[in-house]
Design goal:
The relative contact order is 0.09. Helix 4 (89-97) crosses helix 7 (129-140) and helix 9 (213-224) packs across helix 12. This protein folds into 2 domains: 6-178, 3-Layer(aba) Sandwich (Rossmann fold); 183-284 and 294-400, Rossmann fold (3-Layer(aba) Sandwich). The protein is an alpha/beta fold and 401 residues long. The chain has helices at residues 20-29, 48-55, 71-78, 89-97, 103-110, 123-127, 129-140, 166-180, 213-224, 252-262, 328-338, 380-400; strands at residues 6-11, 33-38, 81-87, 115-119, 144-145, 149-152, 158-162, 188-193, 198-201, 204-206, 228-233, 245-248, 268-271, 278-280, 299-301, 317-324, 343-348, 360-361, 364-366, 372-374, 378-379. Bound molecules: cytidine-5'-triphosphate. Residues 252, 271, 273, 275, 277, 302, 304-306, 320-323, 335 line the site of cytidine-5'-triphosphate.
């Protein structure tokens, strides 16, 4: 996707700027034509000469370069995409205000290309209300934010603010360019996400630790890839993905009804929701009071939404998840067969980086043929891309048959 693309790489004065050398190497290795613009502060952290050698082009730093006074317009027009990586808290504030007192900020006002930023700063700065406001304003303007990640920071503390890995940044760039060559155009995708809540009484419920992030990443990626997306979500703290039609539900029963309603139109169903397997047999009408005695709640099974699904349209692809704590492959294989799936995404939720509420996942994709594709720890967005790419490969083979 990056081959032949003209990327303007802006680098600002963060300690993470030294990592932009690797990013530049990866971009050029992927076939991109990269022009680098450095802010004055960035020069403290990364040598322009190295950037010049790796990009194969002169590196720009000054708004008023003698003989090239219109550089900001020229570079802005030439770019297929502007990527600022790393971007500092100060530069984010400048972007939000629309200031243009240096070459890079001038380019940002002049360009019509998509803009992506990969922040890097200390956790406290990233959490500051001023930065939160600026970031949400930039998002509203359509600027895509890559990361930051949780990890070890320059201060020696661990927190949110770490510059995203070069691999992650490239994947996000690829997603932007694939959106203009939509990989999933014509697909009607139905995704479920999050936990379900099964009422005990009007104020209490049984649920699980699912954050919904995996399902939301799937919905978001499918929208980026040109699909029509319906997201059926249990209760989560996440913002609804832009461009997806969202249906919010609470219980497994509600989720089943919503899935059954939308299934006849879906060319691809992805059941990423962590559906509660049990619910209290009877939910109390009034809040249960303490009695001082031992008590028990009688549970009954909820419907298995996947197993009891109505028949879908011809060619429908069905993807399930298997969140396991032991015998991952064996259990996932059984579910793949029993639930008549085309693909199952298996993960060991006790493994580091693969938990329910984290930002990363470690997945294995199991096919009915016995084939297993293992993926290393990656962001949920990248995991979503891998799952959707596998589903589209199944579609491609089906069309050829
Ligand atoms: N699932 C479902 N309805 C349920 C429970 C699960 O549709 N009532 C779906 C999940 O969304 C997932 C797949 O079935 O795609 C496997 O879910 P999982 O919880 O791993 O397995 P279960 O079938 O519930 O079996 P167990 O909990 O015993 O492992």
């Amino acid at each position: 996707m990056l081959s032949g693309k003209n990327i303007l790489l802006g680098i600002t004065g963060s300690i993470a700027a030294y990592k932009s050398l690797q990013l530049l190497r990866d971009l050029t290795a992927a076939g991109a034509e990269v022009h680098v613009v450095l802010t004055q502060n960035a020069k403290h952290f990364v040598p322009p000469l190295s950037l010049q050698v790796f990009s194969g082009h002169p590196v720009h730093t000054d708004l008023f370069e003698p003989g090239d006074e219109m550089a900001h317009i020229r570079l802005a027009r030439k770019a297929d995409l502007v990527l600022i990586a790393p971007v500092t808290a100060h530069f984010i504030a400048k972007m939000a205000l629309g200031l243009s007192d240096d070459l890079l900020s001038g380019i940002l006002l002049a360009t019509e290309a998509p803009v992506m930023i990969a922040p890097a700063m200390d956790a406290g700065m990233w959490a500051h209300p001023a930065i939160r406001d600026h970031v949400s304003l930039l998002q509203k303007r359509g600027i895509q934010i890559i990361g930051p990640e949780v990890g070890l920071l320059a201060s020696g503390k661990t927190g949110m603010g770490r510059f995203s890995a070069s691999e992650e940044i490239l994947k996000r760039l690829n997603a932007v360019f694939s959106a203009s060559r939509p990989l999933m155009k014509g697909e009607q995708v139905l995704v479920t996400a999050g936990p379900t809540e099964e009422a005990i009484d009007p104020v209490r419920f049984i649920s699980n630790r699912s954050s919904g992030k995996m399902g939301y990443a799937l919905a978001e990626t499918a929208v980026d890839w040109g699909a029509d997306v319906v997201l059926i979500s249990g209760p989560t703290c996440l913002s609804p993905p832009e461009g997806a039609h969202c249906v919010f539900v609470r219980s497994a029963e509600d989720m089943k009804k919503a899935v059954d309603d939308h299934l006849p139109k879906a060319s691809l169903l992805i059941m990423a929701a962590a559906v509660s397997d049990y619910r209290p047999k009877r939910a109390a009408q009034e809040k249960l009071k303490k009695t001082g005695k031992k008590t028990a709640i009688i549970l009954t099974e909820t419907p298995d939404i996947l197993s009891e699904r109505p028949e879908g349209p011809p060619g429908q692809i069905v993807v399930g998840f298997a969140a396991e704590t032991q015998n991952v492959i064996e259990n996932a294989r059984k579910k793949l067969k029993k639930k008549k799936l085309d693909l199952i995404v298996a993960n060991n939720v006790t493994q580091d980086g693969a938990g329910f509420d984290g930002d990363t996942n470690v997945i294995r994709l199991l096919h009915p043929t016995g084939k297993i594709d293992s993926h290393p720890k990656q962001s949920k967005r990248c995991a979503a891309e891998a799952i959707l790419a596998a589903a589209m490969e199944i579609r491609r083979r089906r069309v050829l048959q």
